[in-house]
Specification:
It is a single chain. The protein is of the alpha/beta class and 410 residues long. It is built from twelve helices and 15 strands. The strands form three sheets. The protein has a five-stranded mixed sheet, with helices on both faces. Helix 4 crosses helix 11, helix 5 runs antiparallel to helix 7 and helix 7 packs across helix 8. The chain is globular, with a radius of gyration of 22 Å.
Length: 410
């Protein structure tokens, strides 16, 4: 389904919805392809309550509540801000990005070989993609039976075509003896999709929507910012999950996650130290989890040490799941909450070294990184008004028409 209607030069005022594991971000942007960057008109992040939860299903209910609240605020405050800025209040497009654990990014590689050279034609590529689609649907069906999960593919993208070991930009009957097609599919929970459809119908009736996993838009944006970097790891830390993507030869090859994030860690700190959850989460704002201002028993200090080791062990286990025989790449891009960035940079560095025995370069995906190609005036504007990096990633992805052309919406 085409996301943009009419000319590629259309000016679009659109809603962006970013569903994290413990918060929902809603944004209104103006996207003029004649400009280098989108205009962020209004934005609001609605957080779930920081509280003890017994299950991932309870966390899901909290996020659904945040989604409903955020969309209601968009309908009132957002439309008002749009009216004041440009004189209209109608939004025709909605871009939704969904983070783990509510979405999964499944990558499949389909290989074709022949002793004699063959044509790498668009028809052959389409045939191999159909094989990929079938495999993903079969796996989802098996997963649903085994785990009683309701899952649907919401979009998919061919992230790589490799002929005779070399990337192919566009199939045009080149000769080859081997061909690999790599396709990534964004899969989401059905109850979340149903909730989205219902709230979109109420708040933005008649609007078109496009859905993505956060990992996929994260990958495409980093790829565009660093086109010459071919091997790296993408890490996204949200409140209730940590997701990892592995990029080889410039292609997203594998993605996995654990339903354990910043809030999850704060809850355990809270239980160990017998302090309020908000105070425990505040300690994650320090790179070294500085607890010197607290009077801790020897047992509490030991339990905190065990907890941090347990967390880095969880991430190290994800790093071992690279989808191939290679270890995690040495360059790691880390996306997360600005306040906890320094703390998790240290934890990810430790986890990567546990996995490989080597030191890794960890680059936080900050506002500075995301605006590195901006003019000084544009950079200053964004630094003042859009420090939320998930907002910048979603807005820049939406603004780039070339990104959308790579996806098939289902």
């Amino acid at each position: 389904m085409a996301f943009f209607s009419g000319s590629k030069n259309d000016l679009n005022y659109s809603a962006l919805v970013d569903i994290g594991s413990g918060s929902v971000l809603v944004t209104i942007i103006g996207s003029d392809p004649g400009k280098a960057h989108p205009d962020i008109i209004w934005s609001k992040r609605e957080y779930t309550a920081l509280q003890n939860i017994d299950s991932i299903s309870q966390s899901a209910k909290n996020v659904m509540s945040s989604l409903l609240n955020a969309m209601m605020i968009l309908d009132s405050e957002g439309r008002k801000a749009l009216k004041e800025a440009v004189g209209i209040s109608k939004l025709d497009f909605v871009q939704v990005t969904i983070a783990a654990p509510w979405s999964y990014t499944v990558t499949k590689t389909i290989s074709y070989k022949h002793d004699e050279p063959f044509n790498v034609s668009p028809d052959l590529v389409e045939e191999l993609l159909r094989t990929s689609h079938k495999k993903v649907e079969e796996e989802l069906s098996e997963n649903e039976k085994a785990n009683n999960l309701g899952l649907s593919v919401v979009t998919r993208s061919c992230v790589g075509i490799i002929a005779n070991g070399y990337p192919v930009t566009q199939p045009s009957n080149q000769k080859a003896k081997s061909l690999k097609i790599v396709e990534s599919s964004a899969v989401a929970q059905n109850y979340l999709l149903d909730a989205l459809e219902e709230v979109q119908h109420k708040v933005l009736p008649g609007s078109k929507s496009s859905l993505y996993s956060f990992m996929l838009i994260y990958y495409y944006l980093i790829k565009s910012l660093y086109p010459d970097t071919q091997e790296y790891c993408l890490v996204d830390i949200t409140y209730e999950a940590t997701e990892v993507g592995i990029v080889r030869d410039g292609i997203l090859n594998y993605s996995t996650h654990t339903p354990y994030g910043a809030y999850s860690l704060a809850r355990e700190i809270s239980n160990i130290l017998q302090i309020p959850l908000t105070e425990a989460f505040g300690h994650l704002h320090d790179e070294n989890l500085n607890l010197d201002n607290l009077t801790l028993t020897a047992g509490q200090k030991k339990d905190i040490e065990i907890l941090l080791n347990s967390y880095t062990d969880k991430i190290s286990a994800l790093f071992h799941e690279t989808g191939d025989a290679l270890s995690v790449p040495k360059k790691i891009f880390l996306h997360g909450n600005l306040e906890t960035e320094a703390f998790f940079k240290e934890q990810i560095s430790v986890a990567a070294k546990k996995a490989t025995g080597l030191s890794h370069a960890v680059y936080p995906v900050s506002t500075v990184l995301l605006t590195r190609h901006y003019s000084e005036a544009d950079k200053s504007h964004f630094m003042e008004n859009a420090s939320d990096t998930a907002l910048l990633i979603s807005a820049q992805f939406f603004h780039n028409r070339e990104f959308h052309s790579k996806f098939e919406q289902l």
